[in-house]
Amino acid sequence: MKFGINLYGVLKDRKDTLQALEELRRLGYKCIEPCIAPETIPGYDHVFWPASWFEKHLSQIRGLGFDIVSAHLIGYDAAQHRRQLADLAASCGLRQLVVKSPESLTDKSLHQTALAYMMLADELESVGAELLIHNEQADIDARIGGMTAYEHLLSLCLGRVFAQVDAGWALAGGQDPEQLLWRLGATVRSLHYKDFAINNGSVSPAAIGCGSLDVTACFQFARAMGIPQLVDLDDFGPDPEADLTVSLKALESRTQERLPSVSYLNTLDVETGEIHTLCRFDRVIEAPNWLKGQNTIIFNSEGHIFTYDIASGLENCIDTGTCDNCNNDHVISPDEQEIAVSHSVKETPWLSQVYVLPLSGGTPRLVTPNAPSYLHGWSPDGQEFAYCAFREHNGKMEVDIYTIPVQGGDEQRLTGGGFNDGPEYSPDGKQIWFNSTRTGLMQIWRMNRDGSGQTQMTFNERNNWFAHVSPDGNRVVYLSYGKNDLEAGEHLPNMRVELWMMNADGTGHHKLLSFFGGQGSINVNSWSADSRHIAFVSYEILHK
Q: Within a 10 A sphere around the Cβ of 320, how many other Cβ atoms?
């Protein structure tokens, strides 16, 4: 995922602005949120960038690799500078401009502020930008009509102005940030992380994850809403770089976090768009395979493989022997007598290997001694597996598509260049579909079974994963992430995603639905035998 940082705290003790930005990029920050002022503020021009300086250096800053989605406004008058701010947003490609609550938090002053903010928001809307209000501790402490002054101000803006919640200031103001975020819901368009160590009434700043803030709860909300997440450190310890690194790692370490959440096993009629939810599970389930008989679905959960009977709603755990840490890459044999799984020991979950065992349960047989290997395809003739593997070539780890005989033997590398994943055979066995980053974003590709004729099949400005061909060979469904939601090589859980479909010749691309899912939703082929229905898993985050 891409995480950003507000620049106020970073730059207030630095005058070498561009050097500081280069250091942030080296540390791994992908987005920045500058503070923009109408003109030079003596002593603070390196912190509150004059709009003219920002516009002049914009291409240079973006050349460092930063996305700039939003900017904090300092010293602007919402009423007097409406057109100027709209022009700034348009010329710099800003989608969010951020203001603070007024210093006076009386009901009368908030009504006046709301009116000015709504007029500015209307002006910004004309250029495709939004106005956000950033909370401080004071407007969380203050109460009007039984709610925080911050929430009261937002309510006065009638849905035309949005929220940039600073979770740290909410915490310092005595609010549970998780509860505040979910109360505001879709009103929140951006999240700032500030952290404080709170002990016996004393509050002191801390790096993200080192204080009292429930970072995971805030992170899960931001991911559920698909909003920008920005570190906002006003103060640093003796080693600012260490604080910046720790704060970023606190967010990056949570990208695979699944809990607390529940799972829903669903089917989709690709012709009518009708969705039927089969069952809600109080745990994470992943990667449905649909057996040909139309009544049984296979999925993995908590390291095990389960069958689910659609008619009765009963599930049964398959005895997979020593393969007790199976991931979401499993495939059924063409005759439905066996199942191949990707399994790794719990101590080294990264080192997945492919095993085969009877579908009714039994002793697994190792097929790929090399690891990591993640299975995705079983050839229709039953003779070959296709899988994604991480292998070192010329001193560099590369991710490519490989095949291997089902009985074991030498693996054959089919791709090179970029991150290649998700191989799956066409029903006639002549082609393998896969996804690759070789042209930048993750896109769907197709090649002949021997690796020749590699052809790109999707070209949109999204990250597309896991092409699944219908049994009749006519249609292909795939999972799609937003371009800026994650890195091209990531397929993360608990995100806003879409299911798309195209004809097998690459024509007729269209979106089937949007839902909350991602990793685990549709990793393997889940078409029904009639080529009309798809099984997929959606998720819901539990919260206070």
A: 24
Q: For the residues 216-232, what does the mean pLDDT come to? A: 96
Please report the beta strands in 74-161, taking only residues with DSSP state E, as ranges in sequence order.
96-100, 130-134, 143-144, 147-148
Q: Which amino acid is at 368?
A: T
Tell me how far apart the alpha carbons of residues 422 and 433 are, in angstroms, rounded to a whole number. 8
Tell me: the pLDDT tens digits for 378-414? 999 999 999 999 999 999 999 999 999 999 999 999 9
User: Is domain 4-252 classified as CATH 3.90.76.10?
Assistant: no
Encoded tokens for 131: 């106005």
Percent of the chain exceeding pLDDT 70 equals 100
Structure tokens at 406: 């089902």
Residue 405 to residues 282, 342, 408, 415: CA-CA distances in angstroms?
Answer: 38, 16, 5, 17
Cα–Cα distance, 6 to 534 (Å, whole number): 42
- With CA atoms as reference, report the closest residue to 317 among 339, 336, 335, 334: 339
Q: Is 342 exposed, middle or buried (0-12, 13-18, 19+ CB in 10 A)?
A: buried
- Average of per-residue pLDDT across 112-118: 97
Supply φ then ψ for residue 166, to 5 degrees.
-95, 105
The pair of three-digit structure tokens given for residue 82, joined into one six-digit string: 């409406």
Count of C-beta atoms within a 10 Å radius of residue 13: 12
Three-state secondary structure call for residue 398: strand
- According to the model, what pLDDT value does residue 349 have? 87
* Average pLDDT estimate for 177-202: 95
User: Do 47 and 264 meet the contact criterion of CB atoms below 8 Å apart?
Assistant: no
pLDDT band (50, 70, 90) for residue 89: very high
Radius of gyration of the chain (CA): 26
Per DSSP, what are the bridge partners of residue 464? 480
The CATH class given to the 261-541 domain equals: mainly beta
Amino acid code (one letter) for 49: W
CA pair distance 22, 411, nearest whole angstrom: 42
**pLDDT exceeds cutoff 90 at 227:** yes
Cβ contact 178:191 at 8 Å = no
H or E segment and range at residue 539: strand 533-541
Asked if residue 468 has pLDDT above 80, the reply is yes
Rounded CA separation 145/45 (Å):
39
Find out whether 306 and 315 touch, Cβ atoms under 8 Å: yes
Considering the entire predicted model, what is its pTM? 0.93
Residue 493 is which amino acid?
P
**Dist. CA 497–CA 518, nearest whole Å:** 6
What are the domain boundaries of the chain? Answer: 4-252, 261-541
Q: List 452's β-bridge partners, or say none.
A: none
Give mean pLDDT, residues 526-536. Answer: 97
Percent of the chain with pLDDT over 90: 95
| pLDDT for res 41 | 84
